[in-house]
Amino acid sequence: MTAVQGSSVDVQTPDGVADAYVVYPDDGAAHPGVLVIQDGFGLRPSLRLLADRIAGRGYTVLLPNAYYRHGRAPVVELPDFIDPAERPEIFQQVFPMIRELTPERVRSDVGAYLGWLAASPRVAAGKVGLTGYCMGARLAVLAAAMFPDRIAAVAGFHGGPLVTDTPDSPHLIVGNITAELYFAHAGADHERAPEHTAQFDKALEAAGVRHRTEVYEGSQHGYTQADTSAYDPEATERHYRELLSLFDRNLRG
Question: Helices marked H in the chain — which ranges?
Answer without folding.
Answer: 45-55, 89-99, 103-119, 135-146, 194-207, 233-251
